[in-house]
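Request: Not sure, any thoughts?
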Amino acid sequence: MAIKRKQIIIGLVGPIGAGKGTIIKFLQEKDFFCLSLSDRIREEIINRGQEITRERLLTVADQLRKNFGSDVLARRTWQKILENNNPKVVVDSIRGVAEVNFFKSKQNFYLIGINASQKKRFVWAKKRNREGEPLTWEEFIKVDEQDFFSGDGQTGRNIPDCLKKVDFLVDNSGTINQLKNKIFQILGQILLQKE
């Protein structure tokens, strides 16, 4: 009988447009199953019969955290992880300290932080053209500030404090190949730690 490998769960935290989606594509090449805390918010918005906009994503996320606890999105995503039973999982859109703490209480969880300059992030966010993405620099600055921190920092979004809790921090100021190399080096370190 084959020995079942232990699960690896990688979490991603960083500001809007920093390159988290690109990292997910790299990890999917290595057979990682992707989940996003933001998808739990989208599910809630759809259940309410509302249109998905960036403003609504932020508002509904804060409502869910206030009504069901600061780690509600992490708990709901954890249920999806258990249902899927994939040995390699990447979790995107971690933005709250309670979410980080929830996942860090699980075995074989590693948090990767990613950052890039605001100007680069604006260009990348505009290029990917997701629902409700800001189209002007002024809109981007406003959304970036809202996305970075909300509420008292404990119940809302708090990317600066989440970044203080990472296991690995990636500066995405180079090329896409440099980013890929950094991520695969980190993945190699994680696999070494598991042995």
In short: The chain is about 55% helix and 15% strand. The mean pLDDT is 89. The chain has one domain: 8-194. The two ends are 20 Å apart (CA to CA).
